[in-house]
Every structure is written in structure tokens, then in C-alpha cells.
Amino acid sequence: MEGPIIARYAEMAERIAERTDGKFNIRVVMAKELGIDRDEFSQALAEGTIEMAMLYNSVMGGIFPFLGVFNLPYLTTDQRSCFLVEEAIRAMFFDALKDSGYLVIPPDSFHCWPPQDILSREPIPNLADLSGLKVRVWRDLDGELIRALGGEAVYMPVAEVYVAMQRGVMDALNTGPQSMVANSMWEIGKHYYAVRLEPGGCWNSVNEEEWASLPNEYKMVLIEENATTIQTLQNQYDGLSGEKKAVLAEHGVIINEPSQAEIDAWRNVAFTIWDKWAKEDPQNQVALDLAKKALGL
Fold this sequence. Notes:
Structural class: alpha/beta
Strand content: 15-25%
Oligomer: single chain
Order of helices and strands: HHHEHHEEEEHEHEHEEHHEHH
CATH class of the largest domain: Alpha Beta
CATH superfamily of the largest domain: Bacterial extracellular solute-binding protein, family 7
Helix content: 40-55%
Strand order of the largest sheet: 6-5-7-4-8-10
């Protein structure tokens, strides 16, 4: 995961150890160190292979389909809208977690990062018409959006996009500005479009048995330090998009704001995707209705 997350959780682990005189220690590791990918976190957590993990909403939607509400294009476009949706469907999620073997660190532990934009090799004359454009995506519903606008959606790990765009196999990618900077994407893409597709997010969660075995004083320390860390991350992310876009601009990337007509075109397609998704499962419709109400839609 790019950005400040790992550093902030390493700092959290240090504070917890300090507050408990070194008796409660958390080892923060990257997924690749354990050979566990993010789509395996929940199972590993339930089995006790790992005791604590970030459960990504993009992955959890595959386990609990109604969580796909976070993947609906243009339903959430920033941190605030994500928080409102999370709060609206929280009871549904916590109910679904019963007997799963893991739980969200109280009180809710949800956090998210900046929205996802587009970086392309060549200028896109009209975002409402992506005909002939091959766009890297990482979420199914974003792929539906790109296809509905005439483009070709290609699912590919972000680490492989650089070479694909360099060779002309890919025309553009969908990701956040922090990932673009981390992967030096300015070298192969000079046109940035702030389309603001849905931000990613996650819940900090723990194995249920491990949580039950913790002394209450340790639970309280973890709850407090986890909350502090999440707030620190959210404060950082508030300004992160602007900072990373400035870095891209310094390297010659042209930052484009879509016109209202272009955004309207994307949103009109998105509404159709919402309705189709909601009809797949009664719980999906409930989650969408709750989210729309929370957002005043």
C-alpha cells in the first residue's frame, strides 16, 4: 500500500509498546512478507494466521456483496461521502461479521484514502467518449463504467501498468495520485483527469479469539491508539491528493478538471450501474437506499 499507512501503523505499534512497558507488542509487516495477498486477509484473520489486518472494502465486497456499495462509481467521491456511507451500512456489516472469526476494532475503525483519477499517454478530447481507449482498472464496476463510455477496461496490477503504457499496450490508468507518483507514472503519462472515482477504504480488524484474550487495559490502549492513527491518516489524506498532483505537475503532467458536461455523462452511466447492481441482491438494494439517504440523494 502506497502512502503514509505503514509508517503510521509502525508508530502506533511503538506507542502501544511504550504504554504497556513492552508487554504488548505489535509487529507491522507488509503482506508480501507473509505471502498473503489482500484478498486472503479475512480468511487468514479468521484462522488466526494473522491477528490483525486491514480489510479492504473492495475485497470485502466479494464476501459480503452489499459492501459493493463502496465500489459504485460516483456514489462516493471523497472521504466525507465514504464516511457517511460507512456509518449508514455499519449495522449491516457488523451483523454480517457475526461468527466470521474476526471483528472490527471498536468502535468502527473505518478509514479511506483519496479518490481515483485517470492518467493518460495522450490527451482525451472528450471524457464522455472513450472510444478506442484502453484503460487500466482494478474494480469491476469501474470497468463497466469505462466500457459504457466506449473504452476498453483492462484489469492489471498497477506495477505492470508502466511497461504496458510505455509499449502502447495501455492508453491510460485509473488509480490515485499517490500511486501515480510512487510508480513514476509521469514518465509515461502526461495528461491527468480528476474524474474522482470512488475512494478505496478499509476496516482495521482483529481475530476474535485474540481480541477476547487481551486484558481489558490492552484493549483500551489498542482502541485509543488505533483511533489516533486513523485520525492522523485522515488528516494526511485530506491534503495528499493536492500534494501528489503538484508533484506530477512539476514533472510535466497537465492537470485537467473535467467539464460539467463530461462529469454528467459519467454520472448518468453510473446511475444505471447502481440500479443494475442493486437488483442483484435484496441486501444490495437496502445498502444503496441507506447510502443514498445518508448522502441526501
